[in-house]
Amino acid sequence: MKRLMDILGAMAGLLLLAPVIVLLSLLVRIKLGSPVLFRQTRPGRAGQAFEMAKFRTMIDARDANGELLPDADRLTGFGQFLRASSLDELPELWNVLKGDMSLVGPRPLLMDYLPLYSERQARRHEVRPGITGWAQINGRNALSWEEKFELDVWYVENRTLWLDIKILFLTVWKVIKRDDINQDGEATMTRFTGSQK
Questions:
Q1: What are the tens digits of pLDDT across the range 151-164?
Q2: CA distances (Å), 34 to each of 37, 57, 116, in order?
Q3: CB of 143 within 8 A of CB of 151?
Q4: Model pLDDT, residue 143
Q5: Cα gap 46→122, rounded to integer Å
Q6: Four-point Cα dihedral 81, 140, 177, 170, nearest 10
Q7: Which residues make Cβ contacts (< 8 Å) with residue 17, sequence separation at least 6?
């Protein structure tokens, strides 16, 4: 039932939001340049790699040595709007349709983090990663990594179809309120370097 909900939800989202996706593609191209999509390899279920796509939110500004500037210097006002509204996540509906992701599940993070998880934290990979999840409606980027992972594992241990529906509805409310978008004092979430516990 969960996979059926994912397929129907992703198809409906892609069809209904097609005009928005086309408009955003044009705006990203004009305001941030090419490529329009940010693609990155992320770990999916059982840690299997897949290519996730999002709308680009940063420019490629570099220093004199050719190194990318910090996120705060590359994140434009338009990019902040895309993140605050979660519109940058819309291309992930294609990942859901393909089966790489689910509508609801732990967010797919970086491949570099895989060896850093504790045995319990690694349980977040027992399910497909999601566009939204239990951690996203309970603090999002305002949480510490440990808090976020604990919420992810709680979801893995308690997931039901009704819980997924609840998370989807609460996600819409969170997006409208624009709560917990960034970690305090950071343009994006700081990197995970291993559990402190």
A1: 999 999 999 999 99
A2: 8, 11, 33
A3: yes
A4: 87
A5: 9
A6: 120
A7: 90, 93
